[in-house]
Fold this sequence. Notes:
alpha+beta
Amino acid sequence: MSSTLRSAAGQPSSELGPFPLSLLAVEQRTLANGLTVLVNRDLRVPVVSLQCWCATGSLHEGRWIGSGISHLLEHLLFKGTATRTGVQMVQEIQDLGGHFNAYTTYERTVYHIDLPAESWRQALPILADAVLHPAIAPEEFDREKDVIRREFAMVEDDPETQLFQAAFETAFLRHPMRFPIIGQIDLFNALTCDDVVAYHRERYVPQNLFLIASGAVEPEEVFSVAESCMGSEPRRFLTDLPLPAEPQQVAARYARKTFASELARISILYPVPGFGHPDSAALRVLALLLGEARSSILHQKLVESESLAEEVETFAFAGPEVGAFGVEARCAPERLEALAARIREEVAAIGQAPPSEADLTLARRLTLARSISELKTMAGKAEAVGSGWLVARDPYLKETFLRLLLGVSGEDVQRVARRYLLPHKENRVDLVPVGFRLPARRSSAATGRGGKAVPSLTKVGGGLRMISLENNLPLQFFRAAFGGGLLSEPKGKEGICFLAAQLLLKGTRSRTAATIAREVEELGGSVAADAGNNSAGLSLEVLSDQWAPALKLFLEMLLEPACREEELAIEKRKQLSLLQAERDDPLSLARNLVRRTLYGTHPYGGTILGTEESLASLCVADVEHFIATVLQTNRLILAGAGPVDPREWQPFVVPELASRFGEAAGLSFPPLPPLPSRPVRAEERAPGKEQAIVEIAFPIPELVHPDQLPLAVVGEALSDLGTRLFVRVRDELGLAYFVSASRFLGRQAGYFYFYAGTAPGKEQEVERVLLEEVFRLAQEGFSEGEFVRARAKLISEETMSWQNPASVVTSSALHELLGLGWDYDERRLLRLKAMSLDEVNRVLRTYFQSQGYVIGVVRP
Length: 860
């Protein structure tokens, strides 16, 4: 039986009021064996997302609860079937231009393929075969368990994950949400191959699966292909797994963990009802008001005004039957207790008085804008359909829940704050540096209540260039792309580009940072600034009916930044915190080690964050000079994407910018150090970490060099499941959890690097095997199959990028800025299609036969 599913359970729209979201059109059919197929037909872009959902996650592991068997099975489903090896399976998808991956959560396991529309008919049988008929061989089982043990090590090295897991372990005593999705290592080690085979047979039954196709497909054709490849799977018994009820919490709980870091982190959780409870919508709005946006209460007070934290955020998580309302923050260790006290004060205060109507309007606009943004891609739409179907058998549940959110009143928010954020319901977890001693805690921790998108280029007088792209999604995006990056920074002033970009957000001559944050969010928007190795940028996205006031504010931020002393101090503190956080990440340590070794004191030897010393030397005058001479020049490119006709917004821009910015100074590059003529090895220790990182870098030319595109093909051919590097290092030898390749691209030079994460003690072997593979590759070259597969993936990624108009104009503006041309994406695609295997193998011989490379090793 099939049906077209209507939004909001068929209620007349007049009863629900105006609602601007109607972006899904879902048809559904249930096969005779109980497997459901949901199709969202959307012909706007020639892309399809296929997703097979199993209603089983870490909560449903039954007699294996806490072992992570759901996640282990997810990995093993990529190891092949009776008719295909794992490598063949992945390569067949890549040959179709597809991207095959999976993820596991508490309540689901999802296998997904995103690919060009013309290939979905060939991809769906492969997806069905992988999910329904895995061949789990004992040798693959042992090898994959070793791989996941390295993933355990990665989790151990991630402070945010450690904090989150510790908070849930503290808040839940009986509910299986107390276990991490990856499992507990001793229970994981006890799993056998027979356990996983039995688990697959028990949980991956047709009536526990559903398939989603979103994109340029015809529903009847999807139903037919799904019937042919999934309809013959017999229905089997499926055991109900009731989840244990969580006992009422009667007293506050506290836990503390140490972590090898210079920073402290805190999490405070309160138990709340699960999904479907009438209070869920009000709790979601409460989280938005309290700490999900730049203008939120906690961010403005604790980060911007009082400098107690570098980051703070809140969330309302609604799981099956239970949920959690959380506050998480990062700070200097000595501020931890003061921060905890202020969080409690603010949580208590929101229960004393309802929020204003203006605050609620802001929250509603933010919710609407974010929800629309999540539906930009076919994968996002498929995920929305799947989430709704999983928890409520309603593919339009996202829209239904948004209606509830938009109806939440100030009194509702105050009521749920008073009901759930109670002192005796608090679960506090601190993650503190090793050796850090907290002051003695009080007996009670809690004192308060708690088709292809083609942009176009317009040039006007004064050298101003504008890029525009029209589309029908009701979001308007503006982007200013600046020259900048590492080469623009004066000696001793490293980190100033990133700092200057952030200060564009922090006030103008007539507006404070808080006013800007507030006004942007009242427009249903978000604003962000960034800086990279070669450029910087400022972006603003709002609901399209607010484009005119948004553009006026955006231009004021570009033209009249204030650079106040107090804001400079706040941003320097945040940037310093990011530098410290980098030292918690072994991959970042390895990256920085290789750069220093290869480039020495040249700007490429540093990072965009600078150093503690350079940040300390920066003053307001430095930043104002940098903004005036590097950012506010006619090199700037302004881009816009959205439903507003460029002929409406560009006339506002021209008189403001064309005559205001001066001519940019010519680019001058400092001399590069001599390239290494022999292998150079550098090592660094990372005490307290659980994994070692090996990175090997070979010099390559500047980013506009013609060889960069063949090198991109090389990178793609070595950076995914099924590549020769992955199969050799991870699958056959079990030496690393991850292994991949990438490029550092600079205007003056760059390097291509191979990297892997491994167990301490195995780094030398990893280094040896990586070099063997690199030199073999340089000598023998890729096979025709490897080349065709990598090229198809790159072309596919290009097609995927067309889904997001903001990404299209951002990329176009950057290419124009760097001298590649605003239409480089178009030309790049044509050149990719015409590229030959000989061209790729030539660049392999050119750059990877050299003995002049750098090896960086980071180990505990």
